[in-house]
Design goal:
Elements (H helix, E strand, L loop, with lengths): L4 H7 L5 E4 L2 E2 L10 H15 L4 H4 E4 L2 E4 L8 H17 L9 H12 L12 H13 L4 E4 L9 H6 L8 E6 L2 E12 L6 E4 L15 E5 L5 E5 L16 H4 L3 E12 L3 E3 L3 H9 L3 H31 L5 H26 L2 E2 L5 E2 L2 H26 L16 H10 L7 H15 L2 H12 L4 H11 L2 H12 L7 H6 L4
Parallel strand pairs: 1-10, 5-8
Antiparallel strand pairs: 1-2, 3-4, 6-7, 7-11, 8-9, 9-12, 10-11, 13-14
Helix pairs in contact: 1-2, 4-10, 5-6, 5-10, 10-11, 10-12, 10-14, 11-12, 12-14, 12-15, 12-16, 14-15
Length: 494
């Protein structure tokens, strides 16, 4: 069943406990802080359901049609199909939304490609996983994830000596129907708009943290589950002309608190096994499947950014200055190189277990690292090309409401090539990309959404073929001998 945009909006009006400060948001699809982004998600569902996009956005299995991002690839063609679906979604959002419905779908599909990992140790629930995968693709579910503990959970001395409850989400009770959860999880991007959330652990746990190992996929409206939103960037007085990206693409971030939340057994995929709760992502295709979407999304953002950078120089009249052309050439080369890193994941794909195939791991993790390292530089380059332009306009387009101000604005802010409104529209867009609150949040997101820098670098370390690389140098050294002491003496010590 493929949901339309209208059906999607109806499906997230589910009574979830979503708060902004002390305000409970009764309907996020109409509230000024959330309605704009809800409309964007609805438009994505409509795009997917459009019959003209079915070749890219859907696949058929056993006579049913599902979203392509639930396709478990068995050939290079399947990988390309997934890639194209991710790209269509990312391009629709200009690469500005990290938690679109295809993101966590990659995690779940990857887990379902190697379900035997859940049989490898006690505490894994293979059949539950496969039923969750079937439910999610059949019901066109949009899921997010919350997989990081709160800071207080990392300091046992604090909560033990202070006599406060362990703050990490954990199992505090069990019965015939399921488990009871209490505590907190970070950071569920898109939770205001998703149907369900994958609660788990991307960070390793100690062996004595088995009650924190709980991994489950649950609806976001369970009793006792509360969503604490960060401050929305899209406020009641935000004008789409002045903040065109903020009003459409503020996907929100929520902290989740659990107060005696009952989770049925059938929603649980790991329980009481600390190592397994982390290993399920790296010992299956899950982590790679999900992060290919991240790579594609970042490339769409790069293409948007590089195109905007070039337009900036046209509007300012600086495009033919040699130094400016050199800057644009560097940006174009970076964009092409990043695109090639994604293409390499398709060309050098891996054959994995159970007849499935997977995007090239090394190219994928290299691309994650490149994006983390270079996003700020890219933004700084665009900011430099903008110069002081964003600050040389009125505060808001509402000056056009006053005839006197309108006439002055059009007279003084127009140039020979561009009218005042056209120039202001352009600079407002550029500032919303590089300098607004929305842009600042995006900068932090690009640095940390995969984890801290050392974790991203570790993915590259553990996936490097060190023996093969060592062999290149060792093979060369094998072609000549170490001279003996006698040979060195006969050569005069040289």
């Amino acid at each position: 069943m493929l949901l339309t945009g209208r059906e999607y909006l109806e499906s997230i009006r589910d009574g979830r406990a979503l708060y902004v400060g002390s305000e409970r948001i009764e309907d996020q699809t109409v509230h000024p802080a959330f309605a704009g982004c809800a409309g964007t998600y609805a438009a994505l569902y409509d795009m997917k359901a459009d019959p003209s996009n079915s070749d890219v956005m859907t696949f058929e299995e056993d006579g049913e049609h599902f979203a392509t991002y639930y396709l478990r690839p068995r050939s290079q063609g399947d990988l390309i199909r997934r890639n194209c679906a991710h790209r269509m979604i990312a391009d629709f959002c200009f690469g500005l939304m990290g938690r679109t419905p295809d993101a966590v779908a990659g995690n779940i599909s990857g887990l379902a490609m190697k379900p035997e990992v859940f049989d490898s140790e006690p505490g894994g629930f293979r059949e539950n996983l496969l039923q969750i995968y079937e439910h999610m693709r059949r019901d066109d579910i949009f899921a997010t994830y919350a997989v990081v503990p709160p800071p207080g959970a990392r300091n046992k001395e604090y909560y033990q000596s202070a006599g406060v409850a362990q703050p990490a989400c954990r199992v505090t009770g069990e019965d015939d129907k399921g488990v009871i959860l209490n505590g907190m999880k970070f950071l569920a991007t898109g939770a205001a708009y998703a149907h369900e959330v994958l609660v788990g652990n991307i960070m390793p746990l100690e062996p004595d943290q088995k009650k924190e190992s709980i991994t489950c996929v649950i609806p976001l409206n369970l009793e006792g589950l509360t969503l604490w939103s960060r401050p929305p960037l899209n406020r009641m007085d935000t004008n789409p002309f002045d903040n065109p990206l903020t009003t459409k693409f503020d996907e929100s971030d929520c902290m989740l608190t659990f107060n005696d939340v009952h989770v049925p057994w059938e929603k649980i995929i790991v329980h009481d096994n600390a190592p397994l709760s982390r290993n399920i992502y790296t010992q299956t295709p899950s982590h790679v499947m999900a992060n290919h979407q991240c790579n594609v999304r970042f490339h769409s953002k790069m293409r948007f950014l590089v195109g905007l950078a070039s337009l900036i120089t046209k509007v300012t009249g600086a495009r033919d200055i040699p130094a400016v052309r050199e800057t644009l050439a560097k940006l174009a080369a970076m964009e092409a190189g990043y695109g090639a890193m994604i293409d390499g994941q398709l060309y050098r794909y891996h054959e994995v277990d159970n007849g499935y195939v997977l995007f090239n791991r090394r190219a994928l993790y290299a691309a994650l690292h490149w994006a983390m390292e270079n996003h700020s530089h890219l933004m700084d380059t665009v900011r430099e090309l903008l110069g002081g332009g964003p600050f040389q306009f009125p505060a808001s387009i509402d000056v056009m409401k006053d005839p006197y101000l309108k006439e002055m604005f059009e007279n003084y802010w127009s140039t020979g090539d561009y009218g005042a409104k056209e120039r202001m529209k352009f600079f407002k867009l550029a500032w919303d990309l590089v300098g607004s609150d929305h842009a600042s949040r995006a900068t932090s997101y690009e640095k940390f959404y995969v984890g801290p820098a050392h974790a991203v670098r570790n993915y590259n370390f553990v996936n490097a073929p060190w023996e093969e690389l060592h062999g290149i140098a060792e093979g060369l050294m094998d072609t000549y001998d170490i001279p003996s002491d006698e040979m060195l003496l006969n050569d005069g010590g040289t």
